[in-house]
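Continuing the batch. This is chain 6 of the set; chains 1 through 5 are on the previous pages. Same settings as before, nothing changed between runs. Recording input and output for traceability.
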Amino acid sequence: MSSASVKRHAFKTLLVLHFIGLTLVIGVRVALLVIEQTTSTGSLQVLAEGRELMGLLARDLTAPGFWLTVLSGIGLVALRYGKNIPGWVWAKVTLTVASMVLAVTRVAPALEAARRWAHESAGEGHFLPQLHNSLGQATLYGGIAFTLILLTVPVAVWKPRVHRTPTVSL
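Output for chain 6:
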């Protein structure tokens, strides 16, 4: 097996892993929206259980999917470009880091607070205002973080078109 063949297979494997990671991140986000819609109209106990499920999905699927996407993306860039990293990669890195910082500093604490307040509300038998505030913060910051991740897709699609030079036919 030639070096080029190994490199091509490694690249294809990393690309598949990259798309699996993206699918986890995007798919779980859709599932979270469905869970939130379904549990927000139920009892306080159902709401608390929904928040618990959302936390588990975020921890057990979204986070690993995100890291799989990031690590496979680094591998793809290293295989394809080596040390000559194009500018569009830095745009993706910036969007990804911004999303990660937002997720760690704002979304995760708001989701954890919402989970705690949902259980507290269920225990007290009424909807506590802190739960509403936590849910609002989680929704706002989670939407922004998700949008930042989605913005990396057009950057990835746009990049090949940046370096193409038009051909002239005679």
